[in-house]
Amino acid sequence: xxxxxxxxxxxxxxxxxxxxxxxxxxxxxxxxxxxxxxxxxxxxxxxxxxxxxxxxxxxxxxxxxxxxxxxxxxxxxxxxxxxxxxxxxxxxxxxxxxxxxxxxxxxxxxxxxxxxxxxxxxxxxxxxxxxxxxxxxxxxxxxxxxxxxxxxxxxxxxxxxxxxxxxxxxxxx
Length: 173
Hints:
single chain; alpha+beta; four-stranded antiparallel sheet; 11 strands
């Protein structure tokens, strides 16, 4: 009877641990972080390294002298299928001068479909621009940066998460 009690206790402990691990696993957000300098093909986007100390890394720049540049493209493998919130680290590079218009506009496309949000349109400083949500129905997908103006769109990174919180806007020295 003591052996039976120990077996029941062991079984209860195992069930508790499995449940705890399952709850912890399901509570953790699935995420995918993509630095644009690692894209498979940069298209007409150029690697800009002049602000590495400020940014913490290089970023892609669409400098087409007024003509939109060819898309930057990469392949992604998501950790799981589902609904992801998309955050794009970018800025409106003319905002600090209160210049009219937003010359650095670009889109983010997932498997050829543009997100509803247009990027490079907000913020005088680098920040995580909320791009809304996207439904990922296959783990292997294609990600594109699509320049709209040819006037210096800037994109540092793209973060996909099943949570709703963006990464912090600070760069650790």
